[in-house]
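Researcher: Here's a chain I'd like modeled. Treat it as a single chain, no partners, no ligands.
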Amino acid sequence: MTVGERLAVRENLLQRRRNIVDVQLIAALFGFILMLVENELYLLGCITKSSITSIVLKSFISYSTIILLVSIILYYVTVVQLRMTDNHLNSWRLAVTFRDTYCKIFLELFVCALHPLPINITIPISKPNGEIVNASSDAIMSILMILRVYLLGRMAVVHNKLLAGTATHGLGALNKVKIDALFLFKGLMSTHPGNVLIVIMISILLINSWAMRTCEAFYQFEKDHSDYWTMMWMVSVTFLTIGYGDIYPISVCGRFVSVATGLMGVGTTALLIAVLAQKLEPSRAEKYVYNFVLKAQLDKRRKTAAADAIKNWFQLCRLRRSNVMNMEYIRVHGKLLQAINAMQEAKRKRDSTGESTIGFIEISKGMSDVEKKTEDVQRSIRGLKSDLVYMQKMARDLQCKFNDIHRVLVRDNTRYKPN
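Model: Modeled as a single isolated chain. Structure tokens:
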């Protein structure tokens, strides 16, 4: 297969992968929307879990889930074919490893297979008075369907022209960087951190409020505080780690959602602090301007202190000639010491300001300059070495010529020497 044919095959595989990811997202969203409709109809009392409407809706959810699972398998088949095309492999077994492929496939199929089944499956739940009753498991399965949100990151990666290019993947392979949703998230956090954090917080608030309401509405038998706005207040208080205690989850499912919300709040707060610290840090230009102005101010303060020291020294000398140790002498002597201390303090601050302007970029640039100078010196030394070798060769040639001339002269002298 020629290079042009391989590129054509790779382009077709990339287009097929994009289409498969689109099918995955459509199937996941379709099933999630049907699940929301079925749960809302049940919570409003319009249907029951044994009614035909509920069974039909959950059957469609199962059909969309089957389509999603098949598309996941096709997605990994396409990924293996891409890997074979990129690495010139003839067998798919060479492109598949247990850690990188099989575990991901099994885990992803398990996560996407979680959904409310068309049959009514019940689980034993303990009431506040200790009575054990059977409740539907659809709430737990519905909440676990939120895990399909990772497909949004996959869609963003495969549809991003910059990340889906061959050059990007080649550069990532050379630097051992994996181009995936986490890489895209880090890039967005470096370029648009505020927008990303706002989207994350609003998504956590809406999704966890819905999950908390679903848990409490299904498994809280005293349904006094199970409306959406009350659950949103509870999730907000938990997310911000405030914990007023006026409202708290009763069901075990709601408590799990509350713990997950608290952990998400702690993680988002850490991201917010990191972003604020990065935004509040001055840039290189701002740092240089500020340090330049500060140095000018410290130089002015030092000169003023030096002038005050000289003035007080002359006054002290004038008072010392009178041989009278009065309060004026003590006051002038104190001003002299204060001026000297102010001058030394300004000098120390100026020196420390000069040291603080040196950062990693300056150090790296300095090291690069030193390496460049070192290479120039080594190149000059190699040139001098070659010149010395040439001079030694010339000296040996001259020595040989002098020896030849000496032998000729000696032979001539012996030939024409009188007897």
